[in-house]
Amino acid sequence: MGRKIMIVGANFENKGSQAKLYVVIDELRKRFENCEIFYAHNDEQLDGSLYRFGKIPFSKKAQSQVLKANPLSSLTKMFRKKDDSASGDLDVVSVVSQMELIIDVSEQTLTSNSSMADIEYYLNNIKIAKKYKIPMIIMPQSFGPFEFDMDTMYILGDMKDILFYPKAIFAREQYGYDEMMGYFGLDNLRRSTDMLLTDNNFDISNVCSRFYRPEIPDIPEGNNVAIIPNAVCFGKKYNEHTIDMYKKLFEALRYANKNVYIVCQATSDMEVCKELVSMSSQYGNVDMVDRELDSVELNAFLKKFELVISSHYTACVQAYRNFIPVLLLGNGAKYKELTELLGQEKFFFDVLSEECNNFDIVDALNDYLKDPDIAKTRIQTRMLNIQTKSCFDVFDELKW
Q1: Would you give the DSSP letter of residue 138?
Q2: What pLDDT is stored for residue 342 in this prediction?
Q3: At a CB cut-off of 8 Å and minimum separation 6, what does 185 contact?
Q4: What angle do CA 272, 375, 263 make, to 5 degrees?
Q5: Residue 91 in this model has a pLDDT that exceeds 90
Q6: What is the pLDDT of residues 363-382, one digit of tens each?
Q7: Of 285, 335, 332, which Cα lies nearest the Cα of 315?
Q8: Using 50, 70 and 90 to split pLDDT, how confident is the model at 74?
């Protein structure tokens, strides 16, 4: 058998996270044909017959057991769930300790906006790699801010003690790179754009079995706009402002005779998607995809749209990769830097900022609708030169 590789930091509830898992697996199989890949998941129920990778139940309890175990013994036993491909007992300590590479594909965990439990889980994966002398690579993701209070500032010391270990840590934004370098001065820190931004000729057969069949919703061609909301924008503090924003957008799109489809990217967004459908029923041009699409289906489905209005970062990246303009209604440096990279700054709005004006958002939408080819041409031009060195080249440095 080939090299054993474990991927941490992904989840199937968010289709952007799933997409990152898939593209890393695809790249690994292209480079290491016989490698054995394991997805470390947190009690997700997955149909093992659909995938060409193993699954390791890796809850915080299991992680703790691996971290505390003696590297020379395997005393702790766990049982595989029914959805796991192998039968019998899974000795999680033995399995993890035999890995020859650990890859982290998280989105944004090392930040003072995360819970301490999530940050500690993230750092513990690095500690496991160090304990068992397993090479580790942290793929492009966002970092910072690190504005911890007096009760949580101790975590900065834990970060400084362990972040030196991975072979490479890729910061997706310049902001995150500067934060990490300023706090920790890491020699292993590198810059890279998002791994999903460029087309890597993804081969689904490297990830899924022959039993997998993507189902792409069938919609009429032309005049289609996708709306991909984020439940975070509907929190108590922002709900009224967000609802007003979408009402104004629905009115503008109705006036422009666009067919609008609301798409759920994450399980946690389903209720707000339903709420938007309900409040837009009067317009007659708004529909909702009646099920959650997986990452492959979502990427294919987005190609049917001339414009994507999204509060989810990965949906924006997937749209740009297909040269589709985006109205970004997000929050944070990752959105800002992404639009600057592609010359789309005027279509980004920090919707969680008090300075955000809903009329400005509608004006930006109307500017796009007047001449959509301008935005699309600029995206195509920028994408041609966006990345001369792929972050996946780091796998070649392993010299396997």
Answers
A1: E
A2: 94
A3: none
A4: 20
A5: no
A6: 999 999 999 999 999 999 99
A7: 335
A8: very low
The b/e string for 112-134 (b: 16+ C-beta within 10 A; e otherwise) is bebeeeebebbbbbbbbbebbeb
Instruction: Quote the distance between the C-alpha of residue 339 and its chain's center.
Output: 17
Residues 252 and 185: their CA atoms lie apart, in Å, by: 48
pTM exceeding 0.85: yes
Residue ranges of the alpha helices (H) in 224-332?
239-255, 270-279, 295-302, 313-321
The span from the CA of 144 to the CA of 155, in Å, is 13
**C-beta of residue 21 within 8 angstroms of C-beta of residue 51:** no
How many Å apart are CA 275 and CA 385, to the nearest integer?
40
**Radius of gyration for the alpha carbons in the chain, expressed in angstroms and rounded:** 22
Provide the 10 A C-beta neighbour count for residue 208: 20
Peptide bond into 220 cis (omega under 30): no
